[in-house]
Amino acid sequence: MADDRFDLLQGTLGLVILKALLGGELHGYAIARWVEDTTSDVLRVEEGSLYPALRRLEDRGFIAAQWGLSENNRRARFYGLTAAGRRYLKAEAERWLEFSGAVTRVLRAAPSLA
Amino acid sequence: MSGERHEPMWRRYRRFLRSNIAADVDEEIEFHLAMRSRDYEARGLPSDAAAAAARERFGDVGRVAGWLRRHDIERARARRAGEIMSSIHHNLRVGVRALIKQPTFTAAAVLTLALGIGATTAMFSVVYGVLLRPLPFSEPSRLVRVWTHWKTADGRGAVSAANARDWRAQNHVFEDLALVKNNQSFNFTVNGEPERLLGVRAWASLFPILRATPLIGRTFTEQENEIGRENVAVLSYQLWVRRFGSDASIVGKAIVLNGVSTTVIGIMKPEFGYPSRVAELWTPLTVTADEYTHRTWGSYSAVARLKPGVTLDQARADLRVVSADLARQYADNKEIGAGITPLLEDMVGRLEQPLFVLLGAVGAMLLIGCANLTNLLLARGLSRRREIAVRTALGASRGRLVEQSITELVPLLALGAAAGLLTATWVLHALVPVLPADLPRTEGIGISLPVLGFTTLVVVVIALLVGVWPAVDAARSGVSAGLSELSRGSTGARRRSRVRDALVVAQIAATLLLLVGATVLVRSFLAVRAVSPGFNPEGVLTAQVAIPESRYPSDSQIVAFYTGVLDRVQALPGVTAVGVVNRLPLSGDDQNAGLQIEDAAPHTRWPNVLTRTVSPGYFRALQIPMKEGRSFTRFDGSDAPRVAIIDERLARAMWPNASPIGRRVREGGDVWATVVGVVGHIQHSGLDDDSDPQVYWNYTQRVQDRLALVVKTRGNPASLSKAVAAAVRDVDPEQPIYGVRTLGAVVDRSLGERWLQTILLATFAGAALLLASVGAYGVIAYGVGQRTREFGVRMALGAGRHNVMGMVLRRGATLFALGALTGLVLASVTVRVLSTLVYGVAPHDVTSFVFATAVLFAVSMVACYVPARRASRVPASVALRSD
Hints:
heterodimer; A: 114 residues; alpha+beta; Arc Repressor Mutant, subunit A; 4 helices; B: 883 residues; 4 domains; 25 helices; 16% strand
């Protein structure tokens, strides 16, 4: 199974979560769904590690949690970006893009793989 | 923080940490699983399959939930701790700032605290060091003193070697028992300068009983308690350092003690001392075979260690059986039982009552000071009403305000505690050197860890006593008063003034209690001072001489020595009379015996008498009056018929209607002596302790090797001490004298404990009086301030100054009357604790009660008069404007 999907690399889950929250406050399940939808299910969030990751981001002050009501009127914990989280996301995203761009350029360089 | 509810902090805290966190974690995961399975259902899965799939997708729910719970609890705890720390930090800063802003308040409060905490700590140091501190031996609670219980007499009797040997052999409750002879003199000469060392002779079992091992060498063995092998000594660490420069090679070498070559076999550890640190060496106690046949002889004490698990009652029961056996076996033992007392109690038991009375007194003084502090804080709370009202309006809970008030108190208390400890150190510094010389265990008095613990406890109690009420009051008025409350006569103000009044009443009551106690003790002290000792101590120098048996083996040599000394001292310029006596009056030393009277009816009980060996000059030196007959003369020598002088107490008791001259008396077993004279009775045990009758023997006929010189001079007796020492050395260059002091000093010393007790209680009572009058002044002055407008109106309407003053004074008098009444009731109940401490006055001494009440009344009225006068001088215009 799962040969056509990728588990997230160590450390990138946090970045993905922060990006998910850039659009506004979300609860845990919504974050998982956002990732699946955005990547057409290619990236799969390991749900068991989603919540510990949220706690770590909270501890580092990048996100803040608050109880609220979900779309179906249930009590749910919503997470939102803090200013520090926004700054961190911006910096990390740039680093990541630069890094992946470089890797991409390497892989595309002659001689071609095909 | 939003939504702060009024609930105790601990519950808030628990909710924060436990149930809600777990529930929140569960809820978050439940929500996730529910959403996922709803999505699966939307895709057509049946609901139970959808739920299962959701769980599988999630992974190990239990493990994740556990991790989250642990994480969240940890985080909440850290957060809460941070919050508490920062709130404490803030309140402390507020407290410190308040102290700096109100220097008068701070000074008054810190001074009160320093005085109260300092005195309490110092007093407790004494109580702990003397009474409570465990004896410096392993498992000290198993150590007991064993004493002779005479069925015909009170008190703890000395032990005979014969009985001690049998008790040791026949009991089942002691690990071991040791016979000890304390206060033994050892003459020790180094570099031609003779010194008298105080030591102990003891059975070898003493050391194992005390669990004492030597630093160097060994302690003595049972064999060394046998005659002929006893010339060994164990030195104290202090003596070893002082006289032998810590030279370890002294062990195994011989030194000369009492003129006999003695081998040093061991050095004890620095902390060892038995019976106290005063003892400097220990040598084997030997008992002759002859002595073992006399079961009523001997002036030893015995110490034993109970076997593990044996109680005092079991030990007493066992010794009862043993003594009953001995009583059947030996006629002499018919009246003898064995008493057992814990060693510590034996040493300090008699001090328990006076020390705890003083501790109680100082505690009462502290409470009086606390009442003042509470008043000050209440007043300060009033001036902060606005601030508190604002805080309340902004949602601070009452619990928070109380918490805040107490935290703000911390800097004040810390300052007070530090000042108190300094005061205590200073007080002890001044007090310990003047403590009576016979007070045991004073070396342990100091600011030790247990004392610090006690002080901490005292500070916490103070914090609760003085902090809680003002805090609650502030919080309450904060809630009710609102921002505009400044009106007088509101319920809050009335309640507060009731509390202040109650505090003053309590202060007056406690002060009266102390004053009554102090007055009773002072009157008792004066009564003791007024007792005539029966002799005249003026101009008399005393010095102790103990000549060793080894150098003076025969009676005639001893007599020759003392006769030589008497002749030489008599020849010194300024000396009008000189004598010797075996026991100085009021020195605490004693020697007594039962006196047998010839021709008395059979079965007459032998009166217990103090036996004195004196030279005829003794009566002249102390001016003890000759009532009848003659004194000793040089014709009453060792070969002459035995003569005796008795005191008039004995004469009256035994021969109420006849002259005792010519009658014959003797100490049990000794030769008959003819009474040749009658002298006045003297106070020997204490001015406050009437002594048994006294019998005097001539020093040439009833010879003793340890005697005290008494030298009556025309000039200053103290200036004679060198000449007396020289006169003794002139007779024997190796013979030291010791305990050189004037007889006046001996008398004063005998009053030392009583004097100290009196002066301390009087000081505490004086301080209490001062504190209480300040308290009363403060409250009355505050009341006057509150009623300034009213007084103005009254005076504007024609009331005279005297009416206004009368009103104020009447209020003061009412408070005083309530307090005095309470105090008198309290005092009449509690002065009973003084009953064993007083002499010549009853504890319920009416004069003392009246005097103390009058003093307190006068002082309170002065304290009220000042504000009353101020009230009557306020111009009406000012009073009416005042707000």
